[in-house]
Structure formats: C-alpha cells, structure tokens
Amino acid sequence: MKKFVVTFARGFGSGGKEIASLLAQHLGIHCYENRILTLASQLSGLDENVFAGVNEKIRSTGGFSGFLRGLPRSKNYIAKNEKFVSDEKLFEYQCEIIRNLADQESCVIVGKCADYVLRDRDNVVSIYIEAPRAFCLKRTMEHMGVTEQVANATISQTDKYRADYYAHYTNGNYWTNPVNYDMTLNSERVGVENCVKVIEQYLLFKGFITEEDLKTQQ
Description:
The protein has helices spanning 16-27, 34-43, 48-60, 63-69, 88-104, 114-117, 133-144, 148-169, 187-190, 192-206, 211-217, and strands at 5-10, 30-32, 107-110, 124-130, 183-186. The protein is of the alpha/beta class. A 5-stranded parallel sheet has the order 2-3-1-4-5, with helices on both faces. The radius of gyration is 17 Å and the shape is globular.
C-alpha cells in the first residue's frame, strides 16, 4: 500500500464522519478529526520554541499519530449557537499537525480544511459528502436524540460555521466548491456503505491501494 491521505468535508448529518471512519477501518489506517483540534488548542498557547521542542520529541517517539491517539476526544467543540471567530495561531498548529500526519502515514483526516492544507500533494484524495436536508434531519434527530426543530437549527448553524471557517482560511474559497474535491457523494442516494466502496474503487484506480490490500482488511 502506497502512502496516501484521504480528506473529508461533509454537511452536518450527512454521515460523512461515519463514512470516513468506516473507510479507515476497512483500510487498516487511522482516522483523525477532533484530536487534531485538541492538540492544536493545547499548542496554540505555547511559545514557538516550546512547540518546536514538542514537535521533535513527538517525531522521535513514534510521530504525531501515536501522540494524537492518546489525546481525549473533543466532540462538542462547535456549540449549537457558536459563530465562527478566527484564530490564526490555532489554525497554524492544525496545519502543522496535518502536514506531519501526511508525511508519516497513510490516514483519513476529517474537516480542518485538510484538502486545502494538502492541496499541493499528489498523494491526497479529497472527498465531499452531502445529502438532502430531510435525510440529514432524520439522522441528526436519531443520533442526537433531539426534536426536528433543534436538529434543523443545529444543521444550519454548524454548516454555516464550517462554511465561514473554510472561506476564512482558504482565502475566500467556498466549502462546497466541487473543484476542491476529487469527488462529491450524495450519501442518501449512494448509501453510507456504498460510499465507502466507491471511494475504495477510486483509490484502486489512483494506484494508492491494491485489490490485495482490500482482501487483507476483510
């Protein structure tokens, strides 16, 4: 298996995170999302020299991947009513972490403008997952245990946050721009499991994995 990275952007409730996790499981690689933000948040308040020291220590003891896996999850870092406020230092550290992960291993990275951060690398596949609002509403209500009204507000506010975040850190690009991605998949029409299969076939086509890699992980 060649070293590669699959990045995911996704509409809230579309199942994008589940698809990313399933793909990583199928391929036997790691999936990173909120732990990147956790580490970046911790490092963003540190002096540059301190970060450099931490960076070197991590590299010499198994890389960022092992360090990230030991961090607590941060599931609720976007509040339902939170507006986007830029934090340049936090984003700078996120980019450093994402690049380090891409240097060291094959992996899946969800969100964090990873497609933009790694846009100049030829071993990166970028995916956008979206679905009709009714499908996203149903999933959000089931997964969060909330009313349709709360689910609707959560989807709208979270997607706006993600769009504002992406536009700010990509110099005005827009989050749903199909040109940003290798492919865009409608998770309702394709199905969550089938989205994983489609992406695997694309990775085969690109030469990042082989049929044997898929058989090995079954």
